[in-house]
Amino acid sequence: MASLRPEYGPELPVLVARRMRWPERRTRIVILGLFAALVLLQGARSLATSGSGLTDLLVTEPFAFTLGYRDGMERVRPEPGEVLRLVSKPGGSTDETFTVSELSLPPYTGDPAGVLPVLAGREVEALREEFPVGFRYRGDARTRINDFPGHQILFQTRLGGRLYYGKRYLLLPEYEAPGPPPREGAELTLLSKYSKATPSVGAVGSFGLMKSALRSFRLGTERP
Predict the structure, then answer these.
(1) CB of 94 closer than 8 Å to CB of 209
(2) pLDDT tens-digit series, residues 178-208
(3) 9 half-sphere exposure, CB direction, 13 A CA radius
(4) Under a CB-based contact definition with an 8 Å cutoff, are residues 195 and 88 in contact?
(5) For an engineered disulfide with 54, which of 37, 60, 68, 87 has Cβ 3.0 to 4.6 Å away?
(6) Edge-to-edge strand ranges of the sheet holding 162-171
(7) Element containing residue 19 per DSSP (H, E)
(8) Has residue 153 got a pLDDT over 60?
(9) Beta strands in 105-224 (DSSP E)
(10) Comparing C-alpha atoms, which of 187, 218, 162, 184 is closest to residue 98?
(11) What's the CA gap between 123 and 103, in Å, rounded?
(12) Among candidates 111, 186, 107, which has minimal Cα distance to 152?
């Protein structure tokens, strides 16, 4: 360590050595070790966020997936049937919820692209039961999140008297014939209160806080 000018008083190692009654050399080694530990701790914290400012999340049970979410959202306790629940932090300009649940299909043959639309029809009724107040089905269509094929259902509902728009995604791993078609995947549900950021059902997940979580979502353990 560089020496300080006399008018600034004794160096930190000297002060600590006097206080602890340690040899000055030992004190310098301890201080350098503590400084190195702080640097490593800061580095470990930085690994929790990606270069884009997202918090990376890896879930392995009951199935594996990864995603990254923005600072405006926080992870809370999942509700029954959910594996992950992210909500917008209180006091923000939006009210958004992003949940992940396990998707399990019954045995089937053929391309998953032909099965998911049938499943989506049943899922509409499940949504109607889940959101009974002001529920309206707004359509469904094939989709793809990163490399994972799926189907999306668009809907709206009312919670606490407020209008909310929502999307439910049914996602499966990429199918490679002639192997058995995948039966295990993920169900994503996005819900956003009507606002300037979410003026229509099409804006859900395309703008606002959930955009990053949706775009970075991947089945498996590969980081987003």
Answers:
(1) yes
(2) 888 999 999 999 999 999 989 999 999 999 8
(3) 3
(4) no
(5) 68
(6) 73-76, 84-88, 96-104, 184-193, 162-171, 148-159, 136-145
(7) helix 12-20
(8) yes
(9) 136-145, 148-159, 162-171, 184-193, 218-219
(10) 187
(11) 11
(12) 186
Q: Is 34 exposed, middle or buried (0-12, 13-18, 19+ CB in 10 A)?
A: exposed
Copy the structure tokens of residue 194.
């009507």
pLDDT class of 113 with cuts at 50, 70, 90:
confident
Q: At what angle do helices 24-47 and 12-20 cross, to 10 degrees?
A: 110
Query: Around Cβ 187, how many Cβ atoms within 10 Å?
Result: 21
Does residue 98 contact residue 188 with C-beta atoms inside 8 Å?
yes
| pLDDT, tens only, 71-83 | 999 999 999 999 9
Give dist(CA 79, CA 76) in Å, integer. 9
> Are 156 and 135 in contact, with CB atoms under 8 Å apart?
yes
Q: Which two tokens stand for residue 202?
A: 């099409």
